[in-house]
Amino acid sequence: MVVGHAGISLIIFQHDLAHSLQMTLPVGSTLIPLLFASDRTHLTNYSGNIKLWPVYITIGNIASKFRLKLSMHVWLPIAFLPISPKRVVKISGWSVAKQELESLDMTYRILEYILRPLSDAGNNGVDMICSDEVKRRCYPQVAGWTADHFKSATIHTIYFNRCPLCECPADDLGDHLLPGFEHNKRDLIWYQKLWDAKDTTSFQTSGVKPIANFLWTLPEVLWDIAHADLLHTMFLGIIDHLME
Q1: Which domain, by its residues, includes 90?
Q2: C-alpha 242: how far from its chain's center?
């Protein structure tokens, strides 16, 4: 598929950001929306309470009717993230909060190492052979990350009781706000500036953990890449709560 200044495939690129990004690319090049998915999986209770945290990747250029079929093998595993051990509370000078931040930092450094090639490819592009056997300049960009709320909070370095999309205080979650009084949207660039300035107070006010996020190293990443996991959020969350 070729998209450029001459035209855009509306079937694939429905997001305004995708349209604006495509218009900045050279004529004949292609935007490759990257979709990620991750979820911590419990394996067994009989061999040390083993858990697994896989990360999968696919691209948005593939139609959803094929992408959602297991038999098509469109989602590919790229990493199995380590599961941190249980926190130890009896070690002097090594608090539970410090252990959590160190464990989170290790996870981010691993994801940063895995996704490091996207930083250069997203900015400069890379030559790829398309399905019509024609070589084109492609620009991969992170477009979505499907996970439940706890994994989204982990990916975005926010606290579990905060919204992953806006800076709504924990006590105001669920309140209906009139137009014009919405809370500020989360901004990766702004948080990176706060981190560089070592402004931990603003981090705390925004509900963000004081730690460097691996998403800062990727080009054109917005906070709305977090998409709800319908299984956990709707069926096992809201509907199950209403039934009880």
Answers
A1: 16-157+214-243
A2: 28
Residue 183, in any domain of the structure: yes
pLDDT tens for each residue of 137-165 = 888 888 888 877 777 788 888 888 888 77
Residue 121 to residue 23: CA distance in whole angstroms? 17
Cα–Cα dist 186/166, whole Å: 5
Is residue 135 domain-shared with residue 113, that is, in the same domain? yes
> CA 183, CA 198: separation in Å to the nearest integer?
23
Range with lowest mean pLDDT among 81-85, 113-117, 234-238: 234-238
First to last CA, the chain: 49
How far CA 215 is from CA of 4, 24, 47, 68, 161, in Å, comes to: 27, 21, 34, 26, 21
What domain count does the chain have?
Answer: 2
Domain shared by 226 and 130, yes or no: yes
Across the chain, mean pLDDT equals: 76
Could you report the per-residue pLDDT of 191-219, keeping only the tens digit for each?
888 888 888 788 888 888 888 888 877 77
Query: How far is the C-alpha of 64 from the C-alpha of 230, rounded, in Å?
Result: 16
Helix residue ranges, H only, the chain: 16-23, 64-67, 96-124, 149-155, 188-196, 200-206, 230, 239-243
> Do residues 221 and 206 make contact, with C-beta atoms less than 8 angstroms apart?
no
pLDDT recorded at residue 1: 37
